[in-house]
């Protein structure tokens, strides 16, 4: 009876072929695919904001974070199962680079294009939320919550944001590995959902999610009604400190670096060392399974 998953060794071998495919995609396809991933992550972030905006006073911060993680789990399901290119998942291209299949230029070029595409997709969702006036819901409390999340994220220290970025993408890339190993749709969905729920509930930081969350807060607070609600809820805050400089320097840059470290080294590097380095294909069946994994991953475009 055929198994419905790949072993870790077979999955790692399959990623070598995936990296070759991703780096040879035409630039317009990379941009469009990564635009979709940015939008998918942003949909999940907006859902999380709406669902949790009034939960903490009723159920506590911990349970509210857990529910936020549960609903945010749709993000990687859309990215990995529906298909698109996400920067954090593409840090696993390090496996192909370590194996000598990819050059440094190929990896950096892909990362740059995907990062830009993710950012564009995220900002498109910011425009959608602003134009749709969703943030004015429940007496502008939804918008105020969007601002509050952004404010807290931009007031982390560099080291806090960096380490939270490491924790996040360690889990996200493990989700990518699990989805690639799965050979049926429900297995892939479960594999994508659980690690993402864990990183959100834990309070870790994802650079692409923050490409939506922090600009959303920046835009939402330009509405005087929303800004007033924020100050009523948090009278000691200085909203002027939530700005583009804080977005990039206090959050996006350190979080991105942390995401790269965990994805490229703690998952990609270690899996390459354990299962690819100095190994030979064990059998024709392994090759067949690798091909199956490659085709599944190609459709998923992690």
Give a description of the structure:
This protein has 302 residues and is mainly alpha-helical. The chain has one domain: Glycerol uptake facilitator protein (Up-down Bundle), CATH 1.20.1080. It contains 15 helices and no strands. Helix 9 packs across helix 13. The longest helix is centred in the C-terminal third of the chain and has 32 residues, at 244-275. The two termini are 28 Å apart. Residues 282-289 and 296-302 have low confidence and may be disordered.
Helical residues, percent: over 70%
Unreliable stretches: 282-289, 296-302
Indicate the overall shape.
elongated
Tally of contiguous helical segments: 15
CATH structural fold name:
Glycerol uptake facilitator protein
State the distance separating the first and last CA atoms: 28 Å
Question: Which descriptors would you attach to this protein?
Answer:
elongated, transmembrane, Aquaporin-like, formate transmembrane transporter activity, 302 residues, disordered C terminus, mainly alpha, 0% strand, Glycerol uptake facilitator protein, 15 helices, membrane
Provide a brief overview of the structure.
It contains 15 helices and no strands.
Blueprint (SSEs and pairs):
Blueprint: H1 8-23, H2 27-52, H3 56-59, H4 61-72, H5 74-83, H6 87-90, H7 94-98, H8 104-132, H9 137-153, H10 158-181, H11 185-202, H12 207-220, H13 224-233, H14 244-275, H15 284-300
Helix pairs in contact: 1-14, 1-15, 2-4, 2-5, 2-8, 2-12, 4-11, 5-11, 8-12, 9-12, 9-13, 10-11, 10-14, 12-14
């Amino acid at each position: 009876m055929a198994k419905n998953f790949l072993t870790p060794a077979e999955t790692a071998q399959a990623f070598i072929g995936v990296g070759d495919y991703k780096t040879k995609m035409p630039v317009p396809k990379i941009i469009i695919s990564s635009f979709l991933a940015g939008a998918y992550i942003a949909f999940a972030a907006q859902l999380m904001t709406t669902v949790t905006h009034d939960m903490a006073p009723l159920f506590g911060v911990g349970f509210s974070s857990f529910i936020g993680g549960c609903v945010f789990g749709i993000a990687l399901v859309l990215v990995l199962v529906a298909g698109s290119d996400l920067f954090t998942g593409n840090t696993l291209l390090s496996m192909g680079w370590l194996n000598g299949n990819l050059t440094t230029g190929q990896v950096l070029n892909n990362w740059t294009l995907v990062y830009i595409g993710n950012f564009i997709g995220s900002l498109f969702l910011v425009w959608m939320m602003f134009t749709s006036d969703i943030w004015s819901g429940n007496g502008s409390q939804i918008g105020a919550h969007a601002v509050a999340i952004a404010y807290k994220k931009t007031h982390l220290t560099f080291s806090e944001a960096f380490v939270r970025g490491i924790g996040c993408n360690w889990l996200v890339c493990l989700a990518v590995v699990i989805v690639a190993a799965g050979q049926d749709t429900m297995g892939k969905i479960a594999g994508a959902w659980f690690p993402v729920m864990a990183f959100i509930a834990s309070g870790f930081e994802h650079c692409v999610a923050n490409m939506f969350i922090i600009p959303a807060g920046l835009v939402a607070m330009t509405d005087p009604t929303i800004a007033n609600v924020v100050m009523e809820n948090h009278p000691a805050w200085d909203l002027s400190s939530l700005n583009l400089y804080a977005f990039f320097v206090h959050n996006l840059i350190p979080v991105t670096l942390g995401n790269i470290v965990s994805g490229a080294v703690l998952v990609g590097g270690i899996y390459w060392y354990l299962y690819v380095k100095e190994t030979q294909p064990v059998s024709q069946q392994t090759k067949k399974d690798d091909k199956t994994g490659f085709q599944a991953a190609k459709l998923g475009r992690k």
